[in-house]
Amino acid sequence: MNKAVILVIDDEAQIRKLLEIALQSNDYTVNQASNAKDGVILAANHPPDMIILDLGLPDEDGHSVLKKLREWYTNPIIILSVQSDEEDIIKALDNGANDYLVKPFRTGELLARIRSTLRTALSEEANPVINCKDLQIDLAARTIKKKNELVKLTATEYHLLTLFVKNEGKVLTHHYLLREVWGPGFINQSQYLRVFIAQLRKKIENDPNRPEFIVTESGVGYRFVNGE
C-alpha cells in the first residue's frame, strides 16, 4: 500500500530519476514535472501529499512558485536546491517551505525529513500526547513531564515549545519565532530568543549544552527533533 503521493518539481532529469527510485523503493507514489508551469498544474489537478520543489526552475523562480503554491496548497513542501545561501534558505522557510535541503544531498537524510514532515502533517489536528524519549508533552492538557515529573514552564516557554512540537522536524527561522511569540515589532530582537531557548533547554534537555530536542540550525533558526 502506498504511503503518500509525492510530486517532484525539478528540471534535472537525473535528480528526478534518483528521487523516483528512492521514493518508490520506500512505497511512495511519485509524480514529476520538469518546470514550474507543469508542476503547478499537476499539483492543482492531482493534489499530492507532499511537494519536493527545486528553486532553480527554467521558466520561473522557485521562490515565486513557492509563494503561489502557498496561496492554496496546505500540504508539506520541501525545498531541494543548489542554492545554499542563508538568505535563500530563510526566504524559502519564511515563505512557507517546511524544510530545505541543499544539493548534493544524502538520500537517507531526505527520506528521514520526508517521514518526519508527513508524520507531523498527519498528527497536527489530533494533538496526541507526544513522547520524546523521557519527555512527554500533552498539548491538550497543557502539561509537560520529564521522567514522569511535571516541568514548570513560563507562558512564553510553553508557547515556544508548542510551536516547536507542532512543527516537528521543520526549521523555524529566528524571524518566525520572534514574530509568533513576541509580535512583529520584535523580529530583530534575537537576544530574546537566545535567552528563552537557553531557559527551555535547561528544563527539557538532559544536557543543555548538547541538545537532543531543540537543535540549532546555524544562522537560520531551530528545529525540534523527536529523539524516539
For the largest beta-sheet, the strand count, sense and barrel status come to: 5 strands, parallel
H/E element sequence: EHEHEHEHEHEEEEHEHHEE
Q: Which residues form runs of ≥5 with pLDDT under 50?
A: none
Strand order of the largest sheet: 2-1-3-4-5
Descriptive overview:
There is one protein chain. The protein has 228 residues and is an alpha/beta fold. The protein has two domains: 5-123, Rossmann fold (3-Layer(aba) Sandwich), CATH 3.40.50; 155-224, Arc Repressor Mutant, subunit A (Orthogonal Bundle), CATH 1.10.10.10. Helices cover 40% and strands 21% of the residues. The protein contains eight helices and twelve strands. The chain has helices at residues 13-24, 36-45, 62-69, 86-94, 107-123, 155-166, 174-182, 190-204; strands at 5-9, 29-33, 50-53, 77-81, 99-102, 129-132, 135-138, 143-146, 149-150, 171-173, 214-217, 221-224. The strands form three sheets. A five-stranded parallel sheet has the order 2-1-3-4-5, sandwiched between helices. Helix 1 links the parallel strand 1 and strand 2. Helix 6 packs across helix 8 (190-204). The longest helix has 17 residues, at 107-123. The radius of gyration is 18 Å and the shape is globular. The two termini are 25 Å apart.
